[in-house]
């Protein structure tokens, strides 16, 4: 009797499953495709007493002492290609998702709606994100075939790009609402698939690669205000200028970033999620292999336990409040600066780019910092920086120089919060980052995007632009309280050390060390 690794752990196989022991090839259940034939020596070799397997690096053993022999290179090419493709997808995602804030005035001219009404575009995108996140998580856990996942990613990217771009072609505000809602569903799918796939690829080492993924979101976010500034500067933004064409051109340029992503996943080789498993992971797999129920059924059983309900609920609220504040501040910063008269529209676009530039720099630094610093400490430092910067922004809201510094500090502090919280689930609480778990986390953050923009745009209409800063300060203060509860009471009893690596000189050396 031998064993194989499937999506739920180790499952027993009969000797007849091994199709060719001389060539070292067997039919193995893969997280991507059940009928894929993988070489035994890649990525590991399994041995059993009643199924002796001869290979260049194998030996016979008993079933009670089967072992996993790593045969994967330190720098696995296929996994890194998959990681880089997901990173480029997040460049596109960040550019398109952050485009709405700088183009609100263009949408206003296009549809004849005021800023308060346009706030519902944020709401409908958030609602779509909730729906897409919930459905995407169930699909991710239910269907593990590589072909299915590639199709999901291709469709979600195409619908996201096409939906948002098409919304700029209509003068009716209702069409913009419908199309942005559809795009939000696609974004929810894409977000869950990408974050969960990174977890499948890297296991306990997921922290640094999640930081890398979300760093690329920041790279894309930097480009959108620059695109808007460039297009409006060339095409004009005055009363007699063609603002409608400027709006469409901005989204055509941004949506075109999806083309390389679609082509890659359409023609790419299999996305290999297999990886070397540690002794600790192997023991967990052995335990889970006795339970053949679906991941969704097992997760619903876990939800009946009071402890995990509290954990998930508090994490969702804490992350939701943080994401609320980030989304509305970044989305309405351009509007705040122009309404306050701190600078002109071009200067407002540059200030928005400053936020996303520092945001991107922060995520780049977080890739290296997360290799040495625990997620708990990263989140505490980020929250303190956020509270300090937003308080200073409220006090010096009329001073452009000081306000610009505060915007930069906010960008750096916001940068690593979301991926650090995702990593917290595994490293601090001890739960596996499955598709369903990812869906619940994204559900909390998406609900903030669905509700808060309307509240804050209404506050800005009633009390002036300063309402944005006060609402952001309140949200961050409440979020700090919830994170404190997590750190104080929700750490796992049997602590599992986070992955740390020694200091290295270059990103390549760092990744090689982690791999």
Automatic annotation (TrEMBL):
Compositionally biased region (Polar residues): 14-29
Membrane-topology descriptor: Multi-pass membrane protein
GO molecular function, one term: transmembrane transporter activity
Domain of life: Eukaryota
A GO CC annotation given for this chain: membrane
Principal subcellular localization: membrane
Record's subcellular location: Membrane
Alphabetized Pfam families for the sequence: MFS_1
Keyword Nucleotide-binding: no
Chain segments annotated as coiled-coil in the UniProt record: none
The keyword Magnesium is annotated on this UniProt entry: no
Major facilitator superfamily (MFS) profile domain residues: 82-495
Region (Disordered): 1-36
Keywords: Membrane, Transmembrane, Transmembrane helix
Name recorded for this polypeptide: Major facilitator superfamily domain-containing protein
């Amino acid at each position: 009797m031998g064993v194989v690794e499937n999506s739920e752990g180790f499952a027993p196989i009969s000797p007849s499953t091994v199709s060719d022991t001389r060539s070292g090839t067997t039919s193995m259940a893969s997280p991507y495709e059940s009928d894929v034939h993988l070489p035994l020596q890649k990525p590991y070799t399994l041995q059993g007493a009643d199924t002796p397997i001869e290979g260049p690096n194998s030996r016979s053993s008993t079933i009670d002492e089967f072992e996993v022999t790593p045969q994967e290179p330190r720098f696995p090419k296929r996994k890194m290609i998959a990681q880089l493709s997901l990173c480029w997808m997040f460049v596109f995602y960040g550019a398109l998702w952050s485009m709405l804030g700088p183009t609100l005035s263009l949408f206003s001219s296009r549809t004849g709606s005021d800023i308060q009404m346009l706030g519902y575009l944020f709401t409908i995108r958030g609602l779509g994100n909730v729906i897409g996140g919930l459905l995407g998580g169930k699909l991710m856990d239910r269907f593990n075939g590589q072909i299915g996942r590639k199709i999901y990613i291709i469709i979600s990217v195409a619908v996201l790009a096409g939906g948002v771009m098409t919304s700029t072609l209509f003068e009716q505000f209702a069409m913009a609402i419908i199309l942005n809602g559809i795009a939000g569903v696609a974004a929810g799918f894409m977000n869950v698939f990408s974050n969960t796939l990174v977890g499948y690829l890297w296991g306990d080492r997921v922290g640094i690669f999640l930081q890398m993924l979300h760093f690329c979101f920041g790279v894309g976010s930097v480009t959108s205000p620059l695109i808007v500034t460039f297009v409006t500067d060339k095409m004009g933004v005055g009363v007699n200028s063609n603002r409608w064409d400027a709006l469409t051109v901005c989204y055509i340029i941004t949506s075109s970033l999806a083309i390389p992503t679609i082509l890659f996943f359409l023609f790419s080789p299999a996305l290999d999620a297999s990886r070397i498993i540690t002794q600790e992971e192997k023991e967990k797999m052995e335990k889970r292999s006795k339970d053949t129920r679906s991941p969704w059924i097992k997760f619903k059983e876990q939800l009946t336990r009071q402890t995990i309900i509290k954990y998930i609920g508090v994490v969702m609220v804490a992350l939701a409040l943080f994401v609320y504040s980030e989304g509305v501040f970044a989305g309405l910063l351009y509007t705040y600066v122009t309404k306050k008269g701190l600078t002109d529209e071009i200067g407002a676009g540059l200030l928005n780019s400053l936020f996303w530039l520092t945001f991107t720099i922060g995520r780049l630094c977080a890739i290296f910092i997360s290799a040495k610093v625990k997620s708990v400490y990263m989140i505490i430092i980020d929250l303190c920086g956020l509270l300090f910067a937003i308080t200073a922004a409220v006090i010096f809201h009329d001073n452009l120089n000081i306000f610009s510094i505060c915007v930069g500090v906010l960008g750096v502090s916001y940068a690593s919060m979301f991926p650090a919280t995702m990593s917290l689930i595994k490293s601090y609480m001890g739960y596996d980052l499955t598709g369903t778990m990812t869906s619940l986390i994204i559900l909390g953050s998406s609900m903030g995007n669905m509700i808060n923009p309307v509240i804050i745009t209404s506050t800005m209409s009633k009390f002036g632009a300063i309402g944005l800063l006060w609402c952001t300060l309140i949200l961050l203060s409440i979020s700090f309280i919830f994170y404190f509860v997590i750190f104080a009471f929700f750490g796992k009893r049997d602590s599992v050390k986070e992955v740390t690596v020694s200091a290295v000189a270059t990103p390549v050396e760092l990744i090689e060390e982690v791999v």
